[in-house]
Amino acid sequence: MTSTDTFSDASSIIDTDRNAWRVARADRLAFLVDADAYYRQVETALRQARRSIWIVGWDFDPDILLQPQNEDAMTLGELLRSRVEETPDLDVRILVWGEGPVYSSGRIPVLQDTDWCEHPRIALHYDFEHPLRASHHQKLVVIDEELAFVGGIDLTSQRWDTPDHLAENPLRRRPNGDPYGPVHDIQVALSGEGARVIADVVRRRWGRVVSGELPAAEAPGEFWPSELEPHITGCDVAVALAEAGGSDHKRRTDPIQLTCDAIDAARDNIYIETQYLASTRVVRHLTARLREEGGPEVVILVTRDTRGLLEQWTMGYGRTLAIRRLMRADTFSRLRIAYAVVPDGKGGEQEVLIHAKLVIVDDRFVRVGSANLNNRSEGFDSECDLAIEAQGEACRQAITRLRNTLMAEHLDADPAAVAQVVERTGSLAAVIDEFNVNARGLRSYRVNPRKRAGLLHLGSGIVDPKRRYWPLQRFREVGSFAASRLTGMLKAWF
Question: Residue 120: left if φ>0, alpha if ψ -120 to 50, beta else—which one?
């Protein structure tokens, strides 16, 4: 299938020959902003599942509560166990990155309590089939091959929050009772053929890790949570995959390529939410657009504080370097890079962790998924994103409403008021200028744009690679390059 099979416009961004794995029709689609909204809908779906529940993630914690506001809420593991006991034909398959629990909670998978999954129709597997230092990063849930969830939110701890992002929320606690800070993220729910394509993504990953194929639904129908109002109906969606490649499959770099193509196609504005901003390709395309006279505005929301020395080295220095490059390219003052804060109740501010992976271009394109804007997500870690290119006025309005809703959330404003400012000025920067007057809002990310990169910045490229590598091979390549340069210099001198 090529882009012309579903997108007749010659200027379409999405192209299955270039930046997408497959394109399919979604009967219904909804954007679920923040994990409270997502967890509510996924619990409803789990309770209504009849044949299959497939969960694939960077991490998975059976001890979390999907609805912590309910006093009688079961843990996720208890809920899954109860569902297979109540439904004789229900099959549950869970695939988790083997190192995910160690990174997220310090727990070793083989030592975890697995009483909840000791059932013949619950299969829990850990995924170690990756290149050295790579990870499985997709966040997928598929119910009966009729309903799918795709985005940046794992079914694990330290993800749940509400859109108000209170600095202190007694419901926002890890299973052990420890509190954690506010966190913002996005997931997409979709049904129809689009959901079945996501099911194929699960099969694709499962087949590389576990022997045996996942059973196919005999007669998939349409399942949609009754209380969930779809934002878009009858639209084509593109599934973009990142994979390191191997002997039986080629490397895929769809999410970053798709993002770069969307940036190049932007006319008026580019709105980005990303946990990490370190992709050299994305930064290169953004700087080119910023240098254009009459180019688009660029608004980027990032996370300011890194969590520990390892993350500072792997992503923090790369992000600082990227922001310096963007600031130097901002010849026409069209760039805004900010982080979100809420009042901490003590006269200070608490940062909101931006965990979302979202790109919106004008009113015509949106990409949501698991891929951060870093080098790893280009084709080293495994990723899955969903992209929509507007095919009619209703779809355009849905994309615009999503962007305005997100900006309103971060600026403590009314989405309708945000929409009025955009309509009046045509500027996202004007929205920030007008509404960024509250204790809750956006703060400019400040760095010295002229400061030179240090050795730690160079080192971050080693731990944020674009593709699979063997460290000794990389060192040999560097040594060979240095030797060849030295030889050339000696020949020139003598």
Answer: alpha
